[in-house]
Amino acid sequence: xxxxxxxxAQGEHTNRSVTLTLESFAWETLDEEAAREGITTDELVTFxxxxxxxxxxxxxxxxxxxxxxxxxxxxxxxxxx
Length: 81
Description:
This protein is mainly alpha-helical. The chain has a domain at 18-57. 44% of the residues lie in helices and 0% in strands. The longest helix has 15 residues, at 41-55. The radius of gyration is 16 Å and the shape is extended. 0% of the residues are buried.
């Protein structure tokens, strides 16, 4: 069991942050949807991640996430703080 999961099992919670880098079209779309829903963009992104995690075992979500939608561009890979 990883140290973070061991702490969670003992009732301890750790905060982590994620840096999300998107092009302007994606940010504009997120901002517009958040405004339509009456929430912040951060809240929409948080909800989206939680929704994905809650549905991950359903078989409906793609198991393989491509690193970059642009085949000619290398992916920067995941960023963890």
